[in-house]
Amino acid sequence: MKKLPRFKSETDERKFWESHDSVGYLDWAKAKQVVLPNLRPSVKTISLRLPESMLEELKRIANKRDVPYQSVINVFLAEEIKRESARR
Fold it and tell me: Measured between alpha carbons, how far is 61 from 54 in angstroms, rounded to an integer?
């Protein structure tokens, strides 16, 4: 195995890995899978136009569940995406 250089900054390390293959520097046979349970996915704020009646119904459902209506939208979208992905 090649010896890893010491990097002065994250930028230097990033540049190094952009031009080098990790195979010569890391023994991937000894790698272990890591679980990061507290890592949250990146989110992006979007604007979404909905009919007022649909929004009121979402708010009603959210109120019944005692959660914000945006959370209800996220759950509904995630469930539908999962169903759609399973059809493929």
Answer: 11
Q: What gap in Å lies between CA 19 and CA 3, rounded to an integer?
A: 16
Task: Judge whether 5 lies within some domain.
Answer: no
Domain contains 2: no
Q: Is the pLDDT of residue 64 over 90?
A: yes
Structural domains of the chain, count:
1
Phi/psi at 33 (5° precision): -75, 135
Return the structure tokens found at 36. 């990061």
Which residue in 9, 60, 1 sits closest to 27, CA to CA? 1
- pLDDT (tens digit per residue) in 17-55: 999 999 989 999 999 999 888 988 888 999 999 999 999
Is 35 contained in some domain?
A: yes
Domain membership of residue 61 as a residue range: 10-87
Structure tokens at 35: 């679980």
Q: Are 58 and 72 in contact (CB under 8 A)?
A: yes
